[in-house]
Amino acid sequence: MELHEMQEKVREQDDREKAANAYVMSLVALMAGLPLPIVNLLATFIFFMANRKSSYFVRWHCTQALLSQFFVFVLNTISFQWTLRILFGSLEFSNEYFGYLCVVILVNIAEIIGTLVSAVKVRKGKESNWWLFAPLTDVLVRKES
User: Fold this and answer.
1) Which of 72, 77, 104, 143 has the most C-beta neighbours closer than 10 Å?
2) How far apart are CA 61 and CA 2, in angstroms?
3) Which pLDDT tens digit goes with each residue over 102-144?
4) Domain count, the chain
5) What's the confidence (pLDDT) of residue 125?
6) CA-CA-CA-CA torsion for 19, 24, 30, 31, nearest 10 degrees?
7) Torsions phi, psi of 58, nearest 5?
8) Residue 90 carries which DSSP code?
């Protein structure tokens, strides 16, 4: 194997690892800052900014991970504020609240599973396109760096 081929293989492996870490970052942040919805988004954003000049593959997966975290952040923030208003404000528990809370919990579980699956697939060099975020990621990420 030539030196150029070996360097290309190492670079490709590094890219797969960085792209997989974009998904793993949100899980690590989830464990660190569970009660605060902003922690996951900030950790993913910092990783995104650190890799914004990486290869297209890495940038694409960092962007998709960031978009998914933003979506979950919005849902979690609404449920967090709603819960605080019930506990410390004038709102009361309602069927709407419990329905929304169930949806948020299911979305969070789906996002965690999707993140794990994506991290494994990307680490193996396979594409992982989330049906809701992949089209938007395609629009936001340009092929040239």
Assistant:
1) 72
2) 29
3) 999 999 899 889 989 999 998 888 888 888 899 999 999 988 7
4) 1
5) 84
6) -150
7) -65, -45
8) S
39, with CB counted inside 10 A (0-12, 13-18, 19+), is: middle
Question: Would 76 be classed as within a structural domain?
Answer: yes
43 assigned to some structural domain: yes
| Inside any domain, residue 38 | yes
3 in a structural domain = no
User: Residue 66 has what pLDDT?
Assistant: 92
Residue type, 63: T
Q: What is the pLDDT of residue 9?
A: 59
Q: Tokens at residue 41, please?
A: 């988004």
- Distance (Å, whole) CA 134 – CA 119: 15
> Quick check: 49 and 67 in contact, CB under 8 A?
no
Output the pTM of the full model: 0.83
Structural domain boundaries enclosing 119: 11-140
132-143 pLDDT tens trace: 899 999 999 988
